[in-house]
Design brief:
Distance between the termini: 78 Å
Shape: elongated
Number of helices: 1
Radius of gyration: 22 Å
Number of strands: 10
Strand order of the largest sheet: 4-1-2-3-10
Order of helices and strands: HEEEEEEEEEE
Strand content: 35-45%
Helix content: 10-25%
């Protein structure tokens, strides 16, 4: 009788561990397919520009350009940075908040005296909300 109870416990425990393992694997697989935030330092004409985008999701084109109108394009060397992973490598950047539990998540950082808050449903710059669908460059003055 005791052997049968112990056997049942081991079977249920093994089945439960297998289910938990499959759940974590499926969540990891789902999360990896959701893309990640990128920030690209470049130029728009002769001004400093920052292009923010959701990379890895061609079906969801979230992309906005921010132009710092009072800064020349030579202020920072150009480059593309994965956020939040490469935030420390981005010149002049200070990461303020990140929640990437479910990608792409939320990343909040300060760059060139302006605060950027990236979320899938909206972009916020210095507290003002912008729609990802509008492709008009966001002009900022320091």
């Amino acid at each position: 009788m005791q052997k049968q109870i112990l056997k049942n416990i081991l079977i249920y425990l093994g089945g439960g561990l297998l289910c938990v393992g499959l759940l974590f694997w499926s969540l990891e697989s789902f999360n990896g397919s959701q893309g990640h935030w990128e920030a690209e330092i470049g130029q728009a004409e002769s001004q400093l520009a920052l292009t923010l985008r959701l990379a890895g999701r061609e079906d969801r084109p979230l992309n906005r350009q921010v132009v710092i109108t009072d800064k020349g394009s030579g202020t920072h060397s150009g480059g593309t940075f994965s956020l939040p992973d490469q935030a420390e490598q981005m010149p002049g950047n200070r990461l303020k908040f990140q929640d990437t539990t479910i990608l792409p998540g939320r990343v909040k950082f300060e760059w060139e005296g302006h605060e950027f808050d990236l979320m899938p449903d909206r972009l916020s710059v210095d507290g003002k909300k912008y729609n990802w669908k509008d492709q008009t460059p966001i002009a900022l003055v320091r």
